[in-house]
Design brief:
Order of helices and strands: HHEHEHHHEHHEEEEEHHH
CATH class of the largest domain: Alpha Beta
Radius of gyration: 27 Å
CATH architecture of the largest domain: 3-Layer(aba) Sandwich
Helix content: 40-55%
Number of domains: 2
Number of helices: 11
Largest sheet: 5 strands, mixed
Structural class: alpha/beta
CATH topology of the largest domain: Collagenase (Catalytic Domain)
Number of strands: 8
Shape: globular
CATH superfamily of the largest domain: Collagenase (Catalytic Domain)
Oligomer: single chain
Strand order of the largest sheet: 2-1-4-8-7
Length: 275
């Protein structure tokens, strides 16, 4: 640190006063914090917080680790991957299935009223196979995989970590699944967060290219992790945390946070306290 002391010409300060003032200033400088020291202090506060990573059965260990590593690196928190894997509950899955089929039936001009789930599915699948268009093939691929209720999985993860969440230094939970998830009137979601507990689904990130899968998942981990450290949703176009409505949207996003998100994160952690 460079300390410059100026005395104005003609100052009436005595030599004794000057000596005492100089000593006082030098002592004060010992308590000043340089920018690098302040950053170190902030990082130390950050490092005390923990985010729990909860794998659902079927989630690849390497991808779960990728989520953990991404959040740790981006936000400076501790991460802990829990050993116990959760079995995803099928509660709400039938309702999700009917929602999907009824949406598709409208496109195909099939009246779903009064039809059982099995009968409706049979009619919809037959009509899609007959259509043979790229869109029809894409919808068939969607219907080939079961969809789980996102909110049910979130509550599962919350119950499984209830005791750990009592610790004020635990910032939140990220559960990871390979199953497709949906919520309400949304056809699908890549992730969702409710009161500090989140679920990331990489079902739609699958691709022949491992690099693409990794890129998509890392961007989602950045976005989800941000919510857990109290970052608001980013509405910018050049940020990994921008909301994507599709896989092409996810691929177009950059792999890093924008300047505004980084600045907000720095601001939050500079004053953040456990709640």
């Amino acid at each position: 640190m460079v300390c410059e002391i100026f005395f104005t010409p003609g100052s009436c300060m005595s030599s004794t006063s000057r000596t005492l003032s100089l000593a006082f200033l030098c002592m004060a400088s010992l308590f000043l914090i340089t920018p690098s020291q302040a950053q170190g202090k902030r990082k130390a506060k950050l490092a005390d917080r923990t985010i729990l990573i909860v794998p659902f059965k079927g989630a690849k260990k390497s991808l779960v680790k990728m989520v953990a590593d991404t959040i740790k690196k981006a936000y400076g928190v501790k991460v802990e991957v829990l050993e116990k894997k959760l079995t995803p509950s099928k509660k709400g899955s039938k309702e999700r299935r009917r929602f999907q089929l009824e949406n598709v039936s409208k496109m195909l001009r099939i009246n779903p009223a009064g039809q059982s789930l099995k009968a409706l599915e049979k009619k919809v699948v037959a009509a899609l196979k007959k259509n043979r268009s790229p869109v029809a093939r894409e919808i068939l691929a969607d219907l080939a995989r079961p969809q789980y209720d996102l909110d049910v999985l979130i509550e599962q993860a919350r119950t499984a970590t209830a005791e750990r969440m009592k610790d004020k230094m635990v910032r939140g939970v990220v559960a990871v699944t390979h199953h497709d998830v949906g919520r309400g009137d949304l056809n699908f979601l890549f992730a969702g967060v409710t009161k500090g507990v989140s679920v990331i689904s990489y079902a739609r990130f699958k691709d022949r290219s491992a690099a693409k899968v990794a890129s998509r998942l890392k961007k989602q981990a950045l976005s989800t992790g941000g919510y857990l450290v109290a970052l608001p949703q980013c509405k910018g176009k050049s940020c990994a945390r921008t909301y994507p409505g599709s896989i092409p949207d996810q691929d177009k996003k950059p792999s890093t946070m924008c300047k505004a998100c980084r600045a907000k994160l720095d601001e939050l952690w500079d004053t953040s306290k456990p709640k």
